[in-house]
Amino acid sequence: MPTVSMTVNGKQVSGEVEARTLLAQFIRENLELTGTHIGCDTSQCGACVVHVNGSSVKSCTMLAVEADGADVTTIEGLAMDGDTLHPMQEAFRDNHGLQCGFCTPGMVMSAIDLVDRNPNPTDSEIRDWLEGNICRCTGYHNIVKSIAAGAAAMRGQKAAAE
Amino acid sequence: MSATGIGASVKRKEDFRFLTGRGNYTDDINQPGQTYAYILRSSHAHAKIKKIDTADAKSAPGVLAIFTGEDMQVGSLPCGWAVNNKDGSPMNEPPHPPLAQGKVRYVGDQIAVVIAETYAQAKDAAERIVLDLEELPAVTTVDAAIAPGAPLVHDDLAPGNMCYDWEIGDEAETDAAFKGAAHVVSIDVTNNRLVPNAMEPRAAIGDYNKGTGEYTLYTTSQNPHVIRLLMGAFVLQLPEHKLRVVAPDVGGGFGSKIYHYAEEAIVTWASEKVRRPIKWTAERSESFVSDAHGRDHVTHADLALDASGKFLGLKVYTKANLGAYLSTFSTCVPTYLYATLLAGVYTTPKVYANVKSIFTNTVPVDAYRGAGRPEATYLLERLVSKAARELGMDQVEIRRKNFIPADAFPYQTPVALQYDSGDYEATLKKAMELADWNGFAARKAEAAGRGKLRGIGISTYLEACGIAPSAVVGSLGARAGLFESANVRVHPTGSVSIYTGSHSHGQGHETTFAQLVSETLGIPIENVNIDHGDTNRIAFGMGTYGSRSLAVGGEAIMKALGKVVDKASKIAAHLMEASAEDVEFKDGKFTVAGTDKEVDFGTVALTAYVPHNYPHETLEPGLEENAFYDPMNFTYPGGCHICEVEIDPDTGVTKVVNMTAVDDVGRVINPMIVEGQIHGGLAQGIGQALLENCEYDENGQLLSGSFMDYCMPRADNFPGFQATTESTLCAHNSLGVKGCGEVGAIGSPPAVINAVLDALADKGVTDISMPATSHKVWQAIQNAQMPAAAE
Ligand code: FES
Ligand code: FES
């Protein structure tokens, strides 16, 4: 079995996987980071979104071996010190952007990538961006609100840092 | 109102764990020594099992065992509600084995289970099982299933594929009402079949402990105690005290996770055989063919009206598709949760309904968000709008003319239910204001200038939830009580644990229920923990469905809290040397009227557990109370939904541009959570109206079996919603709450379709079926404009 090594949430990890093992499975099963979810088998739902080298990726569409040497961030790696929520996580809580929580890790990871690319997205840009993220609970209304608020908070944080 | 009490939009306590990836869903759980199950399912809709050869598969790497129906001779998956035929005879109730016996009856039916060291090994080995199946002709639609000579799903156990032929209301009196009618308006509607698709696929872990003889089942369930009862008592014959069912964090349910499913029984049973824990997790394509589907009604209805547009009588004939087997609550959905709602918000004096529920070679059909009530509402609100058009009346006026007035409650309908409260005019008025109903003509003209067809549609509806008074449902055939239980445990330092039989799978109980405690006991919400979902920790529970958590589960908590306050008052009276009758409790403090004596809740709690100075003669130490609450009636949320669409006539592309919902959900504990529930319901309702459809071909192959073929609503399918409440209080529970989980999905589909038909009226289109996809809309425009070509 091939061995893969990568950086996940700032830590160096490695493991033996079958060639067919998906990155999503490696994260959930080998690393026991179960915040990344699997909601479909056709790459539609986005529950599995993580960041690979800074960009959002559906971890069910990537083999673990393809991520060899990559820098991966999962939902568990977002909150600073594991306690202080990332502004996007905070925005989801403040705006009731989640109900059952199953789509949430993917939504948050996807939203952060959107804001990295487009710091001030309009509501319709947010809705378009979420094409690859399905939520069955919220009707998206509060997710859109959360992402707009999270974007504003991320802009504020960036301005403060500069 | 305190910052964390009733009426406050408290941020959810559960969110931190979900937002940081610390949720604990069934598939996140692993047991030492765990093995994995793969279920081999039928790819035929209907076939005789001649032989299943597992010998080669058993020798595949990693395989521990393979079981078929022949090995697993256990009880049938039970149906929880007996519905009688018109003539009083019992329904046909063919057995539902966890692993198929003799025949497979739908694509997805369980044939065998492979248990291996890894999931991949189990799946690989299943490919080596050799099946000898004799394919039989299949039926997938209700009309095909009741046609003479149709293939029989259950052979002589359900002649004519009929489960039951049921009726409600007085047919002769309703006929008489039609005799004097000035107008009769008729409609034929299909309520499209849907796949619930909670984002978390179902999963189950069975774990048998030889040392204690105990079985544990972790499962994605909305009601773990119900699963324990059904699986323990009926399927596997395991006593409750040796069976623990845990439903941890559950990623959405919408009804689909109420039922006791075969996989739960299979992993529990097989874990005793292989003496190792067994995990099964559905892949999404498996969910499509194994989660109970929803809706699937075909209905004809006639409405009699007098010359002024007043409703005189309603006759409804419905054929409901039950799929291949009776799922847990399947039989009550098209009867007691549907036909009893056919009076709607109107004073229609006579209503008669006949429902035939029919077996087909499709996935079992059961409750999906709203369950029966969306089907009733869709029929009624399409019919009322059609009547307005045919009589040349205004959409709003015809409704107002027939509303049950706000001063008429309690109101007895001709179809069994007695509504306790409501004000349909109030919700209508507020919705029309919010939606700027009167400004519609200008918006339509503006859209026309852009080449778009703009339409507005309305739905005024009610539903029955807060399920349910046990005695009433028992008399109607329910095989269970529908009460709820709660336990309030006050700890020595004054913090509180609540153990509730309700189950949260997105509804936010950990917050809403904690608000009840914070308000009642005057303690900070941080000092309250809500526990649910484990039959070993929670005394009993009937779970969460039918918008019952607050109206039934919340009331049980209130009742138990009342007992705690009673006992605490006695302890406080002792401490203050007063009589208990003189003690008042407010904002967490006990006082004696007319004195400055005061003792706080924390001191009383501590005294209960350190009872040095204590009325031992009359009171036990400790501060913990249980309560069971059985409601007096259903609750009746209702309201008004208004939808505006814009259609591009060249492409048929239909966009919802405005969606307004004003719902009467009774008292609102947490407005933020209530609005979120309504948003989610609206998305599912609009999804049903415009996007979603579960489709089989005539051989019983599921054509919409993945997210590529089944159109799940995405963010860009919706506008922002205007959702708010305008409440009257429930008259028969202490909180005055009604329920908010399903209203969005119940009220919205007819509002959307009425809007589509309004937009297309000028083009001559008078009917369209759900889902009104772009293609269907475009086709309707073409057909209406080229009548000759369409013929
Ligand atoms: S699990 Fe990756 S997109 Fe659904
Ligand atoms: S919160 Fe449940 S799927 Fe999005």
Automatic annotation (TrEMBL), chain A:
Domain 2Fe-2S ferredoxin-type: 2-78
Signal peptide segment: none
Keywords: 2Fe-2S, Iron, Iron-sulfur, Metal-binding, Oxidoreductase
Top-rank lineage group of the source organism: Bacteria
CDD domains to which the protein is assigned, alphabetical: fer2 (cd00207)
Coiled coil regions in record: none
Keyword Iron in record: yes
Cited Pfam families: Fer2, Fer2_2
Entry's Gene Ontology molecular function annotations: 2 iron, 2 sulfur cluster binding; metal ion binding; oxidoreductase activity
InterPro entries: 2Fe-2S-bd, 2Fe-2S-bd_dom_sf, 2Fe-2S_ferredoxin-like_sf, 2Fe-2S_ferredoxin-type, Beta-grasp_dom_sf, Diverse_Oxidoreductases
Protein name as it appears in the record: (2Fe-2S)-binding protein
Upper classification of the organism: Bacteria, Pseudomonadati, Pseudomonadota, Alphaproteobacteria, Rhodospirillales
UniProtKB/TrEMBL annotation, chain B:
Keyword Oxidoreductase: yes
Domain Aldehyde oxidase/xanthine dehydrogenase a/b hammerhead positions: 20-137
SMART domains documented for this protein: Ald_Xan_dh_C
UniProt keyword Chloroplast, yes or no: no
A GO MF label: oxidoreductase activity
Pfam families in the cross-refs: Ald_Xan_dh_C, MoCoBD_1, MoCoBD_2
Domain of life: Bacteria
Keyword terms, alphabetized: Molybdenum, Oxidoreductase
Protein name: Xanthine dehydrogenase family protein molybdopterin-binding subunit
